[in-house]
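Hi W., the adenosine monophosphate complex you wanted:
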Amino acid sequence: YRNEYLLQSFKELNLNPKILQAITELGFEKPSPIQEQALPILLGDETDFLGLAATGTGKTAAFGIPLLQKMDTTKRGVQALILCPTRELALQVSGQIDLLGKYKDIQSVAIYGGASYGDQIRGIRRGAQIVVGTPGRIVDHIEKGTLELDGIETVILDEADEMISMGFKDDLENILGNVPAGMSKTWLFSATMSSEVRKVADKYLHNPKQVQVNRKAVSYTHLTLPTNRE
Ligand code: AMP
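Structure:
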């Protein structure tokens, strides 16, 4: 899938002014290549989605902006899950979601292993609409009954290839298999399309729209803080 027009500005997307304001404050002037391709699709009709893009390309905002735009803030409970391979990425994504969502009063909570359950449970109960976390700890919360999947409308897999190579495939399948069927959509992002990623995509994505940015596409990696991979 390719966009037939080039997006010059976030203003062309009919975004909620509260989200546009947050984008402006983050200093994003024009959409990056992955955003240019993904935003019109993800802001449109509900669809599953497969995006091939590496970290540093602006993929967090590529899924974060449509997620926030479409979220109904009058509903209570967790409405979206964002699955990440590491604690660092979960914190980074959660931080960016909170900045993009601050004027729409949308909050996320980061959930990862090695930290206390208490704070994470309080974060969920306080009304976070978005849970960003590592698959293992998310499964733990589901099994303890501290995270309900009933209201989940969107599941996003960030760095799916990394999650699989770090051994989270069973946890991913556990989560994807337990989200209420027919009620939700799945957006999968991965830097590479390994055969394992392909298998997960084939099993859990239904007629996904696909976009790809090549590895040489503009990278904003220099803007991010160095992260330590676990
Ligand atoms: P990501 O690929 O989502 O990890 O994003 C990498 C970095 O690019 C982050 O620091 C973002 O804040 C930044 N970024 C994302 N989109 C844009 C944009 N359209 N213009 C400038 N910087 C951006």
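DSSP finds nine helices and seven strands in the chain.

W.
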